Amino acid sequence: MDKCLHLYLLIYKYLKNITLIAGLVLLFSNLLFGSMISSYPTFNMLLNCGVIIATTVLLYAVGQIALKDGFKISLSFLFSILGFIVFILGLFAPQRYEDNSALMAILLIVMFEAIVLTITYIISKNN
What is residue 96's three-state secondary structure? Predict the structure, then answer.
């Protein structure tokens, strides 16, 4: 029994960091592909690096903040799906800051995610 508990605690400790590891792998992969593929503009590569970092931080926060289990599962799923959508938006965004509707959509989605996480934390804390 003691060995099973020790193994469970070891796996649990490792799984808490899997979000960070996956985020770093995706970030380095994006940088590598951005440097190898000439049709992947630098602006879009840097934009998607920011998207990967923001999504990783939000998913890590969901795992670390004291939330109810249902919130953790649903927010992890929602943030992963929205992160993928934002990444696709970043791939096809125009290469300029001015009048860039894709960039505005990306910022709005990330702000929406942060607001939802904050509200969810407040609700979990009060109950």
Answer: coil
Sorted by sequence, the CB contacts under 8 Å of residue 45 that are 6+ apart come out as 30, 31, 33, 34
Q: For residue 4, what pLDDT band results from cuts at 50, 70 and 90?
A: low
Contact criterion met (CB below 8 Å) for 62 and 75: yes
Q: How far apart are CA 125 and CA 20, in angstroms?
A: 25
Least Cα distance to 16 among 50, 62, 47 occurs for: 62
DSSP 108: H
| Residue 96, both tokens | 């300029």
pTM over 0.85: no
d(CA 44, CA 52): 12
Separation CA 110–CA 86 (nearest Å): 8
Tell me the pLDDT tens digit for each residue of 50-64: 999 999 999 988 888
